[in-house]
Task: structure prediction
Amino acid sequence: MIKKLLLPLLLLPVLTCFAIEFNPIWYKMPPGSHHLNHAIFFSEPLFIKLQTLGITEGSPVLVKNGERNLELRVYSSLRTENTFSMNQENGKKLNLRSGSNKLQIEKLSPTQASLPFRPLTPLIEAYNGDNQNWQGYALGAPHGDCDWFTGEIAQIFTQLSKIPSIAVYGCRFPYRGIWYDCNRPLTKPAANRTGISGISVENFRIWTPKSHGIYSAYQQQVFELADTQPHNRLTFLTSLHGHDLSVYLNNGRTVSKNVIEGMGIGFSKDQLRSIKKFYKKEIKKYFPNAAPLYFGNLPEDKSFYVQGKKSYFLYSAAGTRLTGTLQADRLKYGLHLETPNSLRVKVTSRKKLAAFLAELYTFTDTLIKTPKKQLCLPEIKDVQEVRPKQFVQSSFFQMGSALVNAWDNEKPQHQVFLDDFYLDRYEVTTAQYSKFLNLALSKKLIFVDGGVVYDSHNKTNVILKTSTSAPLSQIHFRNRIFSYSPEYANHPVVHVSYYGAKLFAHFYQEQLPTEAQWEKAASWNPQTKIKYKYANQSNQIINKANIEDSQDPYEISQVGTSPVGFFTATSFYGTFDMSGNVWEWTSNYYDDEAYRKRTQQVTYNPDGPQQGSMKTVRGGAWNFEYNAARTTMRLGVNPNFTSVNIGFRCARNGQK
Result:
């Protein structure tokens, strides 16, 4: 096993032992701290007293409660009360009781301590495998901070299968405002609360140099372990995560959902169905009552019952699983498995899960080497080069959702008035965007560096990624000319950023639709005053939109978009594919609380907040479950981000 600290450790001097006594109250563990395991957390005032003895965060100390003692590492919880925290198991060893406890903390020198010093610093653990037989294969636990079990599972997995694996710790401490995700290029910055800095995290994510450094180091290690050059793609990677997937109810109760959230990259839908069947059959050998496996994001449409009432399981991270080291552009094949506590917490469960994963890799290897079905596609008429517009007449409409199972950011439903506008009948296609890029290049509006197209007037703004930088992009750049894959000419353009969508719209004297314009065109019938759940004139979506497992003829390709207009169901206003196919950029900055901030009886032509770190996308996509294709569903995405499932359409204000 190789252990590498991303930041250098400070050497601890050998000192004489000192001790200090407290009478603190035992409090629950801080969120995001359980992976530290052998740890005790003191509130900030108590931790400051420990620092007077030369004790720093991550230092091993001897904790005494009467006749009992236990060696633990000490950390600050940034609380202001007279409290301390540790897990129940260690609490039992020390015979602690709820309420006040008399504790003595004794400093240990490096020669006295059995636990190594462990600061809040990212740590990578890599386990070497047999590259002769498994070159290009790896298993990664990108943030073992969910718990310390995923790294242990990775280690056992390598021992059993001889496939290399890697785990990362020290990236997530949300109670300290530290949240660097090694599996995707996103990070949550610390919030500044009164009196304490970094006690919480905001509900948005940004890409920073520090998170990029952690992400890059992990990614490099994955390729080294798999004996694969970084400019090539890994053959197969499974990204293993641990999560206590929970629903928080209004009464404060927590209901856990025993499911595995899965995402698959590179596989045809038939292959994913085969993996699901294999899981369902083989997992029973290890776990007779194993959690079911769902592909897509967590299936918000799966209902369950709480105290006899029907409820739904919601998961707010929709859309992030196609990025980071599990992104399609770095892998030929990839699986993301978000595993519940029932598969990881017990020691016996960890060994069983590792054994099953070894079997899964052997099965998947066979699946990968089996030729895919030949693609047999229906003939599609070309979309007009001049993009047809649909007129949306001024009127009031109900914005937001009144559904019980809608997300909080879709509520409350409220009345909005919009002036006349026009909206593209179809999503902007690959052929249309490629033509625009050549015109923009000739006018020096853009430049290309390393296969990435940038804005000439703001050189940090990504416009689009070509196939050189994102192999699954359908637009190419060779000899200073943009071209496209002919078979994707009439498919929606992908790997385009918000800035790329905006530049296209402005080039043609148009704009991106506001969230309100997009939602009205997708959902509203002004004649009947009916609001549709999906972007067609019914509340049905199966076989009417390109969504996860729609079984359309295009889903067996790696980028499972369909030609615009292939699914003939339209909204009342005649727009196609506003549910499914690709998420669509809007002009609004994303604000989770946007609707709750609208206090007027009627909101006129809302254009959202004037600043923010994310832009809102709408409509769901080809690799998302059908509930994500609801007309009121809202997600926030970094405007510089590109993906195989995000595109756009344009709008224009004005009367008919």
Q: What stands out?
A: The chain has four domains: 8-107, 123-172+213-368, 389-427+512-653, 430-503. The chain has a mean pLDDT of 82. The radius of gyration is 26 Å. The CA atoms of residues 141 and 167 lie 4 Å apart.
